[in-house]
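Bug #77: duplicate submission created two jobs. Keeping one. Sequence:
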Amino acid sequence: MSHHHDTTHIDWDEMSALLERNAEFQSPLYRQAAAWLGELLPVAGVRRILDIGSGPGVLTLLLAEAFPHAEVVAVDATEPLLARARARAESAGLADRIRTQLTELPDGFEELGEADLIWAGNSVHHIGDQRAALGALARLLRPGGLLAVAEGGLPARHLPRDIGIGRPGLEGRLEAAAGEWFTEMRAALPGAKDEVEDWRALTATAGLAPSGTRSFLLDVPAPVPTAAREHMVSALGWQRKILEGRLTADDAAVLDRLLDPEDPQSLMHRPDVFLLAARTVHTARRD
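Kept job's structure:
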């Protein structure tokens, strides 16, 4: 395996289209999660929601739909992503209840104001001190308010173990390499601290009462539609970029074939391509 370059920096503006498509494909999963949160809170009593690390606002809109009396604030550190969130809200006729806030965390927690529900979707792991971040979020909750932390689950899978080219088990090796990348990405964050990622225990340390954990499944069996194939090519293309130098030459060559729309073995043509993933949501309540 060759020496890899530093690819742990994420350009969120560059990733905006991929983030938006990914959230759109996972909307059925997240709609289930939002409905579950509606079972844990009195829907009519939720007046203000913070969507931490909102990105392009796909989840922001789902939360606005699930809690029709609430103002929902999309919080992100990248203005182009927030612009996408505003456009999405306008298109959905929800601009009167959705606003955006450009905030760099962890420095800007105090700017966010109180909320009845805080959704932190795959965002806490981008803050160096995760324990401190959860503590800051807990302090923003109104009495009886709920913190929902979407972290963990299962990485998306798209292919059978043996795809007929290269060595079987490609996606397992990609997942292992991505795990190494993730560890290095976290280590490079300002104020990074190692933490046992027991989210129930961490929210309890933040002074909240854990109130349930659930995982939600996304299952699109083969053969998947063209739009799903195009999204997979974009997602794996990004993974190919960040894993440069972390893969064997053989695995990199197979991945390149999967990404080449002219190759009959590519994701755009294979009949066995599917989309299977799970996301886990941990909730905790302020007394």
